[in-house]
Amino acid sequence: MGGDARKNALSPEQRSEIAKTAAESRWLPKAIYGTPEKKLRIGERELECYVLEGGRRVLSGRGMQEALGLGQAHGGLLKDFLDNENIKPFIGNELAMEFLNPVRFVRPGRGGIPALAYDAMILPRICDAVLEARKQNKKLGKRQAEIAEQCEIITRVLAKVGIIALVDEVTGYQEVRNKEALQALLDAFLQKEFAAWAKRFPDEFYREIFRLRGWEWNRLSVKRPMLVGKLTNDVVYERLAPGVLTELENRNPKDERGKRKSTHHQWLTEDVGHPALAQHLHAIIGLMRASSTWKQFHDMLNRAFPKKGEVMQLELIENERM
What we know:
By secondary structure, the protein is an alpha+beta fold. The chain contains 14 helices and six strands.
């Protein structure tokens, strides 16, 4: 009776809209992990995040907007910012089209009402574009410069593949993610065969390790303490993406003399692995520069780039901005 009373109280247009929404919801992908209440926290800001049918990870648009420091006055603030003449040239057509076409899906517990979100990878890509705008354009306004600073902080915390691990951790999807999904992630990072050698680790990375460990640095010498390899695994490969170091050691094993036939980075893919490595190195070298001791650096590293499964929530502290 209550349902009939509600139905009779609705106008034909309202009934038609409800029916249209219900029909559309049947065809939209559904969020299989994540809830509106359980959010990904970045500093003092929180983002709704979900894993959809098929394994796609998405973030709320308003959450991304707030994470960048744009506020929540209305949902178009991020679009207005990206349309600014100082920023727009660095966005690129592909990213712009993705932003203009958000993902429609059905959230749990909302009566099947469609919701809008963005692929989780769009956040670090926006940050990259804003940072490139800052690098190329010396005339950013004060507000734009503040947002670029926030982008720099987010970039340090979210490695491009790390965002997937974070969403999985917050939503609980990591507990049931199948082996094939993890393998697909590793295959995106790693090549089937190692590539020709090219320098990927800048001298500054090793120079900062030597400084923080109290070792004498000689840039003309290629000999390094054996501990450097273990430190590199800890600082870089174990934090690059879930399972990457284990897979690298499987694909690039030591011989009977304890030597590997290639360097680990030669197994990284050009389109995903090497860009992620470069971004990660850039971030951790910044942490090294700001540190006086190895312990201080390692403490900041564990906060900014925790190893998979060690930390569920990352905190950004105001006085750590660099």
